[in-house]
Each structure stands twice: as C-alpha cells, then as structure tokens.
C-alpha cells in the first residue's frame, strides 16, 4: 500500500518507528507494535504505532530514525506487513526452554540491533534468559553475535591486554591507574569504559574529569599507537551495540542475565588476547560470597577460552568503597594524587598493582606485583597517564587542584564512640547520586574513615559534596533515612534486622 | 524540576508518554522508559522517551494521553523521578518463581491499567507467567483484579447467563444463534464479544454485519431491558481493560498465559451468575486433544466457583470450520439464513442448540436441547434476533441478500477423486485474512464440502470472496503454497510430513 510520508521530527530512542492511521493499519493488517516493511530505494523494517489523529488516512508518519535509515526521504512509500521474523520464532523456542544454537542466537541479536524486534519481544527474551538460564554454549554464541553485529577495533598487535571489573563497589578508580601502569610497561591496552547507569560514576565519567573520552575508533587507534593505552567511552564506538540495548531492558527489569556475554563481547570487540577480570566480592558488592565469585570466575575463564582470550580473574574485597572518594571528579582527583605519589591510599594502590601485576603475569612476565609497584613509584605511570591525556586531547599538565569539586558540603559525624563496622555500598551510591553524581561531575562523597578504624564521637565519617544546594538538602534527609554506616563495638552481634514491612530495594548494581 | 509544557499532538496508543531533553532527563535522574511524576493540579505518572532534538532543554513534550490525564494543560509542570513502583517489585518476585498474593496481583494489574508499568515490564510479567505458570489462586486474583480495575455492568437480575468460546475454530457464528435462543426463553444474556485479532472474524465483527455493536454501557443495558439479550463489542465498555493491554503483549509474543483470567474476568464484569464455555477441540483448534480440553474445563469450572459463577464447559468438535462460511458478512448471512430456517446447516444448528441447551440446564431447566430446537424451529429465535437488532439500532427487517458480500471470487477445485480427509483451520484463516477479512467485511470463504464428504475431480471445495481484486490475486498464491485441504482415500496412512527446514508458524490462535 502506498502512503504519503510525513516527517514528524520525533526521535524514538534508536528504534525505527512509524505512525499509521488506524484505518490504514487495518488495511495493511498490522496492529500496534507490529512490523511493516517500508520500500522506497531501500527496504527497511519499522515498528508500528497506531494513531487516529496525528496521521491522516493515506499518510505515514516517520521518526528521525526511519528518516535516517531511508537515506533520502521519499514523498511516497510502499508499506506492507512484514514477514514473521525468524528471530521471534527463536525467542519463542527459548521461552519453551529449548537451547539456542549459534545461528539462532545471531538472528535474535541481529533483530535487536536492526530494530526488527520490538521492546516487548526483547524484554521477553531477557526475561526468558533470566528464568531459563543460559549455558556456556549460548553465552559463547551471544558474545560472538554481539561482536559480529558491531564494529571491531582491528589493532594489528600480537598481544592486546584488557581489564574489566564486574562492578558493584563504589569509588573504584583502579582503571585510571592500571591503564598507565600497564601501558608504561609496553603492553597495548585499548580500554573502553562505560558511563554510570545505576552507580555514582563509571570509569568513563571519572576519566572525563581528566581528558576527553568520546573518541572515534580512528582517534582511539591513534592514541594507542602513540601511547600503548587509552581510556575512552565505549558508547560512541558501536562495539557490541546489542549490549547497549539489552542493558536498557535489563535495567528496567532489575535483572542482568547477559552479564557474561556483555563483558566478554566488549573485550573481544577490541581484539583483546589477554584479559584480567576483577570480581569485587562482599555483601555490598554485586557478588556476595567468595564461593559465588569462584563459580563466576570459572565461567568467565571458560567463556574466554572459547572466545580465544586468555582470561584470569581477581577476587577483590568489595565490602566498602575503594580509596576514599566517590563521584567522577573526586575520584579522578584521588587517582591523580595517587599516581603523582602525593598521597598514599593503600587499598587503591594495592588493588591497582595486583591487577596490573596479574596482567603482567598472564602475558608471561614474572613478579608482576613488584613490577607494577616500581612503575607507579618511579613516576613512569604518571608520565604515561599524562601522555594518554595529551593524546586524547586533554591538558597533560593537569593538577589535582584544577579538577572542580562541588562547593556545597555536609558532613556525617559519629554519634558515638566505637569502630567503623560496616559501610552500606548501595546506600553510599544512592547518597552520591542524590547529591548529583554522576551528572554533576563535582558531586560525590569523601570518606575520612574506613572499616575497622577507631571512631570517637563527633568524628567526621564522610563529607558529601554537591554542585547545587537544592540537591544537597534532599541528600541530608536521605542519609538520615538510610543509615549508611555502622559504628559499634567489635562484640556487637546483630548484623541487621529483617522486618515485616517489605523493603523495596531501590538500588541495583547493573554496572559491569 | 519545572519544565515548560509542549503539546506534541501525538498519540501513544493509550500509554501516558512524555518526551524529555537528554540533559533534563539526566538532571532528573531518569533514563528512557523510566517513570516520572508530573505534578500540576493532579499528579500523574508517565513513561519517559528521551529526545535530543524534538524537545528543547527546559521543555517537556506531552502525548495526547498525558494531556487528557492532566485535564487542563498547564504552561509549566513539576517533573520528578517517580518512586520505584511496588508493582515492579512484585513482577520481580514472579520472575524468581514466587507465588503472588491477591494484593500483589492487584498492584500489578493497576500498574498495567494506569500506565505506571512500561511495555517491557508488562512483557516480562507475561513471559514470567508463561514460563513459571500461574496456579488457580493467582488466576483468581488476576480475574478479580481485572474486574476491579474496570467498569462493571451491574444489572439487577438475579440470574444472568453468559457463554463464551475459547476460540480457535473458524466460521464459528454460534453466538449469533445462542443469544436470541436464550433470550427468547426469558433468560438475561448480556453478551460482549471481541473483534478478530488473529482470526478471520470475531463475533463482534460478525454481528456488525447485522447491527451496530459499539454501544455504551447505558445503551447496552437499555437493549437488555427491552430484549433480555444483546451482542455488543466489549472493547468500548472498559470491562477488564487490563486484559486488552495484556492481549497486545501476548499477541506480540505468541503466548497466552492469561487465557483463564481473561475469559472469566470478562464474564464476571458483566455480572454473570451462570456461564457455559465452549472448548473447540481438535488438531486445528487452540486445544488439540480431548484430554487437554478436559483439564482446561476443570480449571475453568474451579475458577468460576471461586468467582461465584456456576460454570459448565462444552467440548466441541474443532477440526473444521463451523457451518460453511468464514468472514464477517458471510457468517452473518449464514446465521441469518439458519435462524430464518431458510437453510439447514446441521453442525451449526447442533452446536447452537447444545450450547443453548447447556445454558437452560445450568439454570435449572430440563431437556435443554429440545427446548432450544423448539425455539429455533418455531421462529421465536428469529423474532428475538430482530428485536435485538432493532434495539441496538439496526434494521430489524434485514434479509440475507441485503448483506453485501465481496464480488471478486476464486474457487478451489479438487485435483482428484476421494474423500475430504482434513481441513487445515489455520491455513483457512490465513487465506480468509489474505482475502481481506475481517477488515473487508465482505471477504471470506464458503465451503461446499466438509470432512468426510465424497469428492470427484473438479468439484469445488471452497470459494474465496474478496472486495478487492488485488487481495484476491495474492490469495491465489497463498492457497497454492499452503495446501489447506486434504483429499484422499480413507486408507491413506500418512498424516503429514515433518521436514528438516524449520517451518515458521505464522498463525496463532489468540481469540478467546
């Protein structure tokens, strides 16, 4: 059926959407959320919205996404109901509990990326993966398909290393130290990172306080050629783009069945040959127990093997923030001070050197930890970081005090003497986000005390920074409500209460 | 955060949707598909779309749905991130396999109806119900919640009867006979029907060839008061509106876990006290085996008991179309001819009298079948139908030849002698839909032969009717491809082949 094209000037968040008049939709035989084929010079598939008033009979309203896919906008376009997509048949198979083969997984991932599958169908697939589970064959197929449906970096180096954290622990600026340490030793590390989704800062957010991180693939390659390393935002590179779509659905549903393929596809897409994965472990982290973390590590290593990447995992202590600071600018500042050897943050330094050391050892070096320590202490890591900053277009002379921090502050003081017994990571993340992080880069939290420290009444436990006083005042209420730290005696026996009133969990660690 | 309101003039299919600029969304802390609270005079919840170009910073674009919910359109509106909805917590519980309690189910159904839950979340819930299953407690809660979140008819009669077919067999115009037969006997039958979703005609589509079916609740009540019965489209009455939303999702996913609550909530919403349900059974129907149908019947009866409706089920032969005709006008014509005793269609008459008889017997009458036959043969059923037509605003003098039928035809002729061994219902539905049904009311199929009939080469098996020659020509190809009927000897042993090439099932019986 031929319809006149109305450009609506509306964006639909990446999905190709068209608007049809009710009557034309009936004629074509399609319902809302159904699919039509649009045929002008190109043929594309779009998802249907039905509208009785916006679009007149005989017309079709197209979103910006559709306009771009069509290339030149035709006056008239041939619109027919789409054939039943094979990908949906395969999703239905998974719903029934059937294992998916590589070709079938590829068809689904392609449908996700090209917009053939609508939101409901993707949500159903993610739900089915969550309930039915996916085995390592399926995880491998998903990883490969996610790589194949996106860009790949194609560096020519024989050894390419990468690191990644499963996430879940606030203040984890380890990557800002690991990349320069590893690159300073001559290893190629094309590090891509994500922005925060549910956390207070992603590595891309942290790095952005030091340098531009939105680079093209060509600029990224140039940086690596010059310096061996980079710290860029992965979102602009279209590496494993299916993952970005899956993540949105997972976030909405508070589940993350695609954790493994998501992580490993991003590593494979940059061409990594050797990978070290950090699994922060503890009650406040994504992975709660060491046993659980060991199982996850085994799966990740096996998945790595199938994808032809040597993989080691590091289980790290995840019950409290890493270092003292949380929030993009505050974390960048702390990392810069540490790499300049201006301050000593023992847990951050230990973690960075252990992970760097693991990277050295998986690529055949000995005494990796000592090697990393030496590179950090000697100033070679700082020099390398400044080279990377310069190559990515930042100011290589940047000093910690140049990084703007929110000027509005409140402090949490101890109400009694004792020891700091615990810090609730998810409450800390909520507080930092309420204060404005990661959107307000200068917002966040700085801890004066960490678990095990002796506390006297009125000691400052942490300081909250915000850029806007409005956000700070609402943070104050939240702190009162959340009870984010525990101070007591070492002989206090009660861990916490579980009460009758169902507590709705507001925080969810999606970062990976 | 206060934003200026832009009325976009866009409808979003019932869901309250707003468009935010990327930067404002970040400031509010919400992502695409997230939820915001809009506070003007009223407070409502809306789902967020992110747009970088359509909506300027400091503005919020609102859909027609949101404009209507807000009442008067304010210039400025306070927009904040919504609290985490409890309903989503309960959906997550179901994902984990936990049984849902009444209050929890109600919260979810309310979230579906008021737009708090987005499409992905609803799809996830429907998927979880499909995979995890729902027990009769949950089915009861769902039925009750679906009734409570919609309108209810509130007739004052002590006995109110209703009938329903699980669906899946084409040509099933039984309701057009049952309602007048039952009403002629003095029973109150407030019949609401749906339009076709995946079939060639719904009862509302069929009835519409005889009379208006889009009545308000008040008009429906007036009709019933006058005539004891009605045949109206349920979609305009807002009875169990959650079901209409669930159906869309189910259709998209080709699953229907909500079958039982969907049927029973619609019956409860009209206030039925006695219900007879038809379960067409056979390989071409929704329910394939008698054993399966018996199980379903037991569940439906128990669900009825819990909802305080006396329920009987009728298992009927579902391997071929009921009567000879398929398509809205053709079926209306056949029903009218039968009720006028102009033609004899034994299977249709038997089914209509058996179901009417079951309704008579469940309300305490004896010899229900004979009673129904008598009402039909005597012309009292025809008289009652014409009263109902008049009361609903149609022409009570309507004759079969007044009903317009498509003038374009093709015929399927037998290629060999033999017996008609089988008719593939779903192929028949596909062919009728390809010819234009239900949108083109005069399109459809008329069978000359039925299963078991003797066939000679070149006998006409069926005739396809269409209103548009374009649709007829594409139907011809489809018939060739589908092989919709089997003619052979009674000693032919092969039922069908299952081959290597995966066959993608295009048809799906959602009607219920």
- Please report the first level of CATH classification, the CATH class of the largest domain in chain A: Alpha Beta
Number of domains of chain A: 4
Number of strands of chain A: 18
Please compute the radius of gyration of chain A using only Cα atoms: 25 Å
Q: Give the largest chain-chain interface (CB within 8 Å).
A: A-B, 56 and 56 residues
Uncertain parts of chain A:
none
CATH domain topology of the largest domain in chain A = Pyrimidine Nucleoside Phosphorylase, Chain A, domain 2
CATH architectural category of the largest domain in chain A: 3-Layer(aba) Sandwich
Instruction: Tell me the fraction of residues in β-strands of chain A, as a range.
Output: 15-25%
Strand order of the largest sheet of chain A: 1-5-2-4-3-6
Q: For the report, how would you describe the main beta sheet of chain A?
A: 6 strands, mixed, barrel
Looking at how many chains there are and whether they match, the oligomeric state comes to homodimer
User: What's the CATH H-level superfamily name of the largest domain in chain A?
Assistant: Nucleoside phosphorylase/phosphoribosyltransferase catalytic domain
Our count of helices of chain A gives: 18
Give the helix/strand class of chain A: alpha/beta
Describe this structure in words.
- The structure is a homodimer of 512-residue chains.
- The first copy, chain A, has 18 helices and 18 strands.
- By secondary structure, the first copy, chain A, is α/β, with parallel strands linked by helices.
- Chain A has a 6-stranded mixed β-barrel with strand order 1-5-2-4-3-6. In chain A, strands 12-15-17-13 form a 4-stranded antiparallel sheet, with helices on both faces.
- In chain A, helix 5 crosses helix 10, helix 7 crosses helix 14 and helix 17 packs antiparallel against helix 18.
- At the A-B interface, strand 4, helix 3, helix 5 and helix 10 of A face strand 4, helix 3, helix 5 and helix 10 of B.
